[in-house]
Amino acid sequence: MIQAVLFDFDGVLVDSLPYHIQAWQAEFSKLGAR
């Protein structure tokens, strides 16, 4: 049973910025933006 959920929004535990950039670029390219 899960007793806790850990959120890391500021990159302390995991440097997720490259993944966020990649996701935003993919979504904007679907809309035709560069």
Description of the molecule:
This protein is mainly α and about 35 residues long. The chain starts with 16 loop residues before the first helix and ends with a helix. About 40% of the residues lie in helices and about 0% in strands. It has one helix spanning about 15-30.
Lay out the secondary structure.
Blueprint lengths: L16 H14 L4
What characteristics describe this protein?
34 residues, mainly alpha
The helix/strand order is: H
From the alpha carbons, calculate the radius of gyration and give it in angstroms. 14 Å
Assembly type of the chains comes to single chain
Proportion of beta-strand residues: under 5%
Largest sheet: none
- Which percent bin holds the helix content? 40-55%
Instruction: Please give the count of helices.
Output: 1
- What class do helices, strands and sheet pairing give? mainly alpha
Separation of termini? 44 Å
Number of strands: 0
**Segments where pLDDT lies below 50 for 5+ residues?**
none
Return the average pLDDT rounded to an integer: 88
Q: Which term fits the overall shape?
A: elongated
